[in-house]
Amino acid sequence: MYIGETEDIYKRLLQHKHKNKYEFWTDTYFISTKKNILHRGNIQYLEYKFIELAKKSNNIDVFNKKGYCKIPNLIPSDQQFTEYFFNYCKDLLAKLGLEFE
């Protein structure tokens, strides 16, 4: 599994496709918001949480070379919102067939 962030999903997918560096790639899931409710810190927090979750999984190989070594520092209200959003996304991804646990 590769977990990453981008501002342009189409452009990023094309970059990965042309590099041919992810031959294992069979599925794509992405998280987006309707009104850009996430700022850079929220996104980095989510990326960190999903990478850590995937690393702890017994059935997922993580191919990220980069990532955040420690959880990004958010103010408490942002952290609470981002944790809620993370759990919502994790549940939604599970319903789509992506199980982390």
Could you explain the architecture of this structure?
The chain has 3 helices and no strands. It has 101 residues and is mainly α. It has one domain (9-95). The chain is globular and about 40 Å long. This is GIY-YIG domain-containing protein.
List segments where confidence is low: pLDDT < 50 over at least 5 consecutive residues. Answer: none
N-to-C terminal Cα separation, in Å?
A: 14 Å
The helix count comes to 3
Q: Could you tell me the number of beta strands?
A: 0
Percent range of helical residues: 40-55%
Q: Beta fraction of the residues?
A: under 5%
Secondary-structure-based class equals mainly alpha
Whole-number tally of structural domains: 1
Mean pLDDT: 83
- Compressed to H and E, one letter per element, the order equals HHH
Can you summarize the main beta sheet?
none
Shape, per Cα inertia axes: globular
The radius of gyration computed from the alpha-carbon positions, rounded to a whole number of angstroms, is 14 Å
Key words describing this protein structure:
101 residues; mainly alpha; 0% strand; GIY-YIG domain-containing protein
Describe, in short, the structure shown.
By secondary structure, the chain is mainly alpha-helical.
